User: Fold this.
Amino acid sequence: MLTEERKQYILQVLDHEGIIRSQELMAALNASESTIRRDLKELEEESLIERVHGGAQKIGLLDFEQNMVEKSSENVHEKRQIAQYAASLIDKNEVIYLDAGTTTLAMVPFLREKNLTVVTNSVEHASALADFLIPTRVIGGNIKLTTKAILGSKSVQELKQYRFNKAFMGTNAFHEEYGYSTPDPEEAAMKTTAMEQADLAFVLADHTKCGQVSFAKVADLSQAAIITDQIPAEILRKISKKTTITEVSK
Amino acid sequence: MLTEERKQYILQVLDHEGIIRSQELMAALNASESTIRRDLKELEEESLIERVHGGAQKIGLLDFEQNMVEKSSENVHEKRQIAQYAASLIDKNEVIYLDAGTTTLAMVPFLREKNLTVVTNSVEHASALADFLIPTRVIGGNIKLTTKAILGSKSVQELKQYRFNKAFMGTNAFHEEYGYSTPDPEEAAMKTTAMEQADLAFVLADHTKCGQVSFAKVADLSQAAIITDQIPAEILRKISKKTTITEVSK
DNA sequence: ATGATTTTAAATGTTTTTGGTTGATTTTGA
DNA sequence: TCAAAATCAACCAAAAACATTTAAAATCAT
Assistant:
């Protein structure tokens, strides 16, 4: 791994996440403590980052308000945990589908050095993937203005031309009886197709999505493995044994 | 393998991937370590690439802050003027194509209230258009990592299924004899097709692009109207009367 | 064909990068 | 507050990458 590659990765992570600890960088970049430390030192000397005890942060990241609000309103930590675990399931040289959504977006920094091709229907994901220099293909179609997801019948049609090793999906709701669902039927159609075109489908969902039902059905629970942080035991019992569930926080 | 061939290859790779190791180049080009190193050295002396320990990278791939400086030092004002004039040419309810590039990006804020449908091959433009709540369609295809433009034969194919009222193109170079050109052949193919699919094509180019020639030809000058800030009078005389030129600063 | 020039590959020693070790410093939790 | 744990800074030796030289091979001009 080239020094400049590492530095660029660090800058990108900081740009996307704001703060990072050295330990995480060591793991993500397969580099020794000294190496990471040296990189951080040099980046600091170029005043591209700000070093803090245990890691580094974006320069001028002292807007407590904005960050604290942002971070605490959403369960960022759980999402990152889920994302990291999901990324660990990916093998080298695979072609994966990355669905729109914040949890799948958190997977991006963990996708390096796997020689992947990533296909996505999210403009935001595509941009982040490019930032991390990961070869990426965007599905064509109409942009949903609120989420910047790419949807529509032509997009579904394009998806059907591809085949993925693994698909990583977000969801708004999953329910033991009604399966995965989402408010927008167009979005649901897209998700359904992507899952069909993958050898293995994974749904990333934090506990707030558990037991919920939304307007448009995407698939039955059994059609994907669930990766989540925690599920109430009584719901866990109700879910058919055919569905694989991983709780990353345990 | 000719020296120039190797250099072209190296530049292409860097343009798409951003960074490359010497070892990879040795393998890809069947050349010895010294040869690759010499190529890199010469390319660096021409300041076409930036050499780093272990390989080379695209110039300025790392300098966020320099990028910011560059953005502000560059002729933003001219670009915005050009963009605003270009946007004023658009009628209500049209379908327009927006090419990748900084000048066309500057058009986005002027596109509201026109009831347009915008088609683009740029992830960045798509995101900005969505922010401005402008109905947008993205072309599908591979993302060029350094510019986030969407390219490739499938993208060209998709473009051919559409028809635009107007197409607004960026360019790296235009020349009275050699027409419009750009460094990346894939990008050129995309531009050529987009212009063919539009009833009217406009090329937005500030004066720095005037009289320049780049690697891959996009089209003849006569195939689009030029919108620019200023053109030297003697070049203006050389350009055929068939080409419409608008100088917005006057 | 011949000699001049360019391009290439191998060999040399030098510099840079890297991961581990040391002891000092800071943070954490009782 | 104190002690354990984590992090840090400084140093060292091995490995990787570098610049330079040299000679062979290919290309070019005459």
